User: Fold this.
Amino acid sequence: MYKLLIRPILFLFDPEKVHHFTFRMLQILHSIPGVSALTKNLYNVENPKLEVEAFGLKFKNPVGLAAGFDKDGKLYRQLGSYGFGFIEVGTVTPKPQPGNELPRLFRLPADSAIINRMGFNNQGVEHLIAKLKNRNDDSVIIGGNIGKNKVTPNEQALEDYLACFDALFDYVDYFVVNVSSPNTPNLRELQEKEPLTKLLLALQKENKSNAHPKPILLKIAPDLTESQLDDIIAIVRDSKIDGVIATNTTISREDLNTPFDRLTEIGAGGLSGKPVRKRSTEVIKYLHEKSKGAFPIVAVGGIFTAKDALEKLDAGATLVQVYTGFIYGGPGIVKKINKGILKARG
Assistant:
């Protein structure tokens, strides 16, 4: 129904406006008594064989929602009813910021892809905390994806990451350090070995000062070279963070079906969806094999089907996340992936 009827209508309109419209409709729908319970019955796959233990947390299934979809934690409860094993909110910054100029979100239907240059638009960490304060103990696992404000120079980036980390500590189950978005000027420079090591060591020091430290993961770009990936392995080892999320969006435009003129018209931004699938899997496989499975990897990039998810798991991932696949495939995608994993591995 979604692919045949709903998606064609939604895709007639501006992607960002559709995103906000969909959020409003979900809020209204789930305010009706019984709808959330019905949704859980329709979309959840409950099976102990799907459970995964990773970085000290127990996930009811390995399929999560990637950061960027629910930046401000507005719908984590409602989205949780669609069968996700975990949901990542953010990327959040210390202060609210509007992000980049419109338009900044573009569909590439010929490639089952999206280009975005959102620029960490969010309402700030205090607003996110207000949304997360009333979490129930049995609610879905929540990850907090943290970044820096656009106006903060890289030399002061650590202050922003620490501010988000400290503020969110009591409200999320794990953290993700985002230094790999292509849409904040110079942010990816923080992926270099020296600044990244300094950043993660400082976050770990702060983390260990708490009685019960939280897992910290690093989200990396798919555009890193093998030498840079070797650095990532060394940084994870030296900082003793808990894992890696591979991968963020790519700046590459290779082998796309979308006409060159259209890509030129769209301009800069991070590409997600099916074109990222192969490279994401290559990065996961390289990290897993070169590190000899030393840390968990959360896979994201081009996951639309159970086959895509199994490809990532077979390459060495422990968990998977969807984003573009959720937009193109609709709410039933999580159930289909979980059922496919059960069939293949049950």
